[in-house]
């Protein structure tokens, strides 16, 4: 029996839950859990401030709407923002469209940087986008299973089998996650779009244990 078939019940449940959540939104939506179950306790691990998280949601909404208004259905663009850095993925018909979507996204309030990973090609098929959702669920399950990583420190975007990783992580975390994800079936390449932080910065962000009462 191969490891891909012999799946523990807990992992199978996680995969099913993640797949349902992703399909309930869009086929190319990023997967970012709100907390990780550690020793029976839900621990919030988003390394952005609450204010920045709200700004990122606003950036995604505004950029997506403006691209739709100006370019319509001739492009298929996914906009994801993490810590005010915008990642553009999807397909456009011409280089002129690539330049246009970067210009539009750059003009949105609070955007600090735009990463353009769009491709000049035909729009992806429904089967391709469904496959991306499946890859996403495998990635998130893999990160949750990795005991040396905090899974939702990673913002995962999959487009045509290419995996884009965002987040504020250390070099150790970035390498470990990239190595794990590169070995997942269906992943064509892993693109690191991280904001790198030091181990000291990470230690300062982690919750401190409560002092014991005398």
From TrEMBL:
InterPro entries: BON_dom, Lipoprotein_DolP, Transpt-assoc_nodulatn_dom_bac. It comes from the Bacteria. Transmembrane segments: none annotated. Residues 1-29 form the signal peptide. Residues 55-122, 131-198 form the BON domain. The keyword Signal applies. Keywords: Signal. The keyword Cytoplasm does not apply. This is BON domain-containing protein. It comes from Roseateles agri. The lineage of its organism: Bacteria, Pseudomonadati, Pseudomonadota, Betaproteobacteria, Burkholderiales.
